[in-house]
Design a protein that fits this description.
alpha+beta, 6-stranded antiparallel sheet, globular
Length: about 180
């Protein structure tokens, strides 16, 4: 950024701090009325290649994160992709996966920070959540888009294989016997 961020733009300054701490290009676009800012960057992890957008709304005291992967949803697979996204959203506690025909899968997350004293770590957590959700579901998104696999069949396959640490550590528990007490 070639000019200083105005002092009153506290969330934008926080975004600048986050970007600088990661060593990313700090090319933040300020809104002309200083009501917010926008930042975009491409990056890769072991699980995905993505386009990240972070937007700050100073007036509403909100930060929004959008993370899009590279799996574009063709119109012919839109219904299946949407069904998968709805299932992901039902299983995810924060943010949501958005599906639009002819666009990549996108994870969106907005946090209201009014009355709080956030740090750059708050933005990192938003980005981490987005990366985690898209990275976790990347394979399934690809299968729904690039194969004839239905979302319903894919989810049934996932649910059939769900076993957590407790299931692995403890033997099965018998169901209770029918009661004769009335």
């Amino acid at each position: 950024m070639d000019f200083p961020i105005p002092v009153e733009m506290t969330l934008t300054r926080l975004l600048q701090t986050f970007i600088e701490e990661l060593g990313w290009d700090a090319d933040i676009s300020l809104k002309p009325d200083h009501s917010g800012a926008h930042y975009e960057n491409r990056f890769s992890t072991a699980e995905l290649n993505a386009r990240l957008a972070i937007e700050v709304d100073e007036a509403r005291c909100c930060i929004s994160v959008w993370l899009s992967n590279e799996i574009t949803v063709p119109e012919r697979r839109y219904a299946e992709a949407l069904e998968l996204a709805n299932a992901i959203n039902a299983r995810t506690r924060r943010g949501c996966v958005v599906v639009t025909a002819r666009q990549p899968f996108c994870f969106r997350h907005t946090v209201d920070l009014d009355g709080l004293n956030p740090t750059a770590q708050a933005i990192k957590q938003l980005v981490d959540t987005a990366v985690c959700v898209l990275g976790t579901w990347q394979e399934e998104m690809g299968r729904v888009v690039f194969t004839r696999t239905t979302a319903k069949a894919l989810l049934a396959e996932i649910d059939a294989g769900v076993e957590d640490d407790i299931d692995r550590a403890l033997p099965p528990v018998r169901p209770p016997s029918p009661s004769t007490v009335q």
